[in-house]
Design goal:
Elements: E1 5-9, H1 13-27, E2 30-34, H2 37-46, E3 51-55, H3 63-73, E4 78-84, H4 88-96, E5 101-105, H5 109-142, H6 150-163, E6 169-172, H7 179-189, E7 197-201, H8 207-215, H9 232-235, E8 240-244, H10 251-263, E9 265-266, E10 275-276, E11 280-285, H11 289-294, H12 300-306, E12 309-312, H13 323-338, E13 344-345, H14 347-355, H15 361-375, E14 380-381, H16 408-430, H17 435-442, H18 446-455
Parallel strand pairs: 1-2, 1-3, 3-4, 4-5, 6-11, 6-12, 7-8, 8-11, 13-14
Antiparallel strand pairs: 9-10
Helix pairs in contact: 5-7, 6-7, 10-12, 13-15, 16-17, 17-18
């Protein structure tokens, strides 16, 4: 266990050495000394200190001035003041400014040791409280990012590392991998966590509106601009702005974002003056920005400004060992949200989950779980409840070679069932269970599609999301 550290600050060198020799064995801690307030601040910058013992009267920077700087920069640090008998009023002032205690000179050694032991105990309690708070913050930040795989452990480590900085982060990964959750975790673990978090779904906002949404506008800047409006960058001042799917924004918006990142200023539409903003930018994309740069669709200089601290979110295919954990998490989450009794997933459906390609990643898995909770008639969700067909002897029909352990006619029928379940399942997922739209995509008449769905036991209502 690391020894606790006491830093004594006094301009009397003889007293410093005397206190160091006498207090180290009696307190059982490491004692460091500083002969001025400036020297003490340098020590605090370099290494951790548990307790500060400060003389009230020193040249250049007195004890109260040092206390004020310590409270501003190290609010958790316990400070005990030393003062002469005639300076009790100053000692009381120090207590009001945040000092834990004061000791009058000349002091009795046993009284000093007792007082410092109490102060060290306070430091221990504060440290334990801070560690508990950090643990709670970590748990809350990562509660929606589920997984124990090596790839997810690297993601957690990267998030904790970048959260300590104020630099721009670019999160990449396929749709549905949780890029937005990673961004929220970065904000929750950062020094900006008590300030605004503003998320912007860039592709969802038309280009002609996105600029005014991001940067704001002044009255009269365009038709219908009847009053001033604050942009999202200003709303995120002192906090974090999340630019989701930034790879889809236009070159015009790209140029303006580059200026924000370079100069930390924005210019609202119709304004002649720039406005300073203090915002941490986190962006995400499921696009290959390198390819878009080569095609001239994305600015290379903007990419390098964004890609200061990159984080890659793994696809579900790359971490199948996390699927059982995700299934349990999603069941608990949506049972509470839907007010449904808890259900389990049948072993054969878990097998399908583990081997499915999941192009929509966690979001697709979540949709399947929701369908199962809504439509499974029993306490156990079966493959047919969510539009999958049961695997035969460990295989997924339509994915592997047909089994040779069954008659040809049965194997053919099983393969057809698997094909139709997979094909129509994909189409109905894309159309959210709308049979008419699905029929158009398939090139079939609606009635013909309904007959096939009935024949192979595929329920369109299992794919409806609302």
């Amino acid at each position: 266990m690391t020894k606790e550290t006491l830093l004594i600050v006094d301009d009397e060198e003889d007293l410093l050495q005397l206190l160091k020799r006498s207090l180290e064995p009696d307190l059982g801690c490491e004692v460091k000394v500083a002969s001025s307030g400036g020297e003490a601040l340098n020590v605090l910058e370099r290494e951790p200190v548990d307790l500060l013992l400060v003389d009230m009267k020193m040249p250049e920077m007195n004890g109260l001035e040092l206390l004020e700087q310590v409270r501003a920069g190290y609010p958790w640090l316990t400070v005990v003041m030393m003062t002469a008998h005639g300076c009790i009023e100053l000692a009381v002032q120090a207590i009001r400014m945040g000092a834990y205690d004061f000791i009058t000179k000349p002091f009795d050694h046993e009284t000093l040791v007792l007082s410092l032991n109490k102060a060290l105990e306070r430091s221990r309690l504060l440290r334990e409280n801070l560690n508990l708070q950090r643990h709670v913050q970590m748990h809350e930040a990562f509660q929606n990012l589920v997984g124990k795989s090596a790839r997810m452990q690297r993601v957690y480590e990267a998030i904790q590392m970048v959260a300590k900085t104020d630099l721009t982060v670019l999160i990449t990964g396929e749709s549905g991998t949780g890029k937005d959750l990673a961004c929220r975790a970065i904000h929750a673990l950062s020094q900006r966590r008590s300030n605004p978090f503003v998320a912007v779904n860039c592709p969802a906002i038309p280009e002609n509106i996105l600029e005014s949404e991001l940067f704001g506008y002044r009255k009269g800047a365009f038709t219908h601009a009847t009053q001033n409006r604050t942009g999202l960058f200003q709303e995120a001042h002192k906090g974090t702005i999340f630019l989701d799917e930034i790879g889809d924004i236009s070159p015009n918006i790209q140029a303006k974002l580059l200026r924000v990142l370079q100069e930390k200023v924005i210019k609202p539409l119709g304004d002649t003056k720039s406005v300073s903003v203090d915002v941490r930018v986190v962006a995400s994309t499921n696009r290959d920005l390198g390819d878009r740069i080569r095609r001239g669709e994305f600015r290379e200089d903007l990419f390098y400004r964004l890609n200061v601290l990159p984080i890659v979110m793994p696809s579900l295919r790359e971490r199948p060992e996390d699927i059982p954990l995700l299934v349990n998490h999603l069941i608990e989450k949506h049972c509470a949200a839907l007010n449904r009794p808890r259900k389990s997933v049948a072993p054969e459906l878990t097998e399908i989950f583990l081997r499915a390609p999941w192009p929509g990643n966690v979001r697709e898995l979540e949709n399947v779980i929701v369908r199962g909770l809504l439509f499974a008639p029993r306490d156990e969700i079966l493959p047919e409840d969510v539009g999958f067909h049961r695997p035969v002897k460990g295989r997924i029909p339509g994915k592997d070679a047909p089994s040779t352990n069954v008659p040809y006619k049965d194997a053919k029928e099983e393969a057809l069932r698997g094909f139709h379940a997979e094909y129509f399942g994909g189409v109905l997922t894309a159309t959210r269970g709308n049979v008419s739209h699905a029929a158009k995509l398939c090139g079939l008449e609606r009635q013909a599609l309904q007959q096939l769905l009935r024949r192979y036991g595929i329920r369109s209502d299992a794919y409806r999301t609302n």
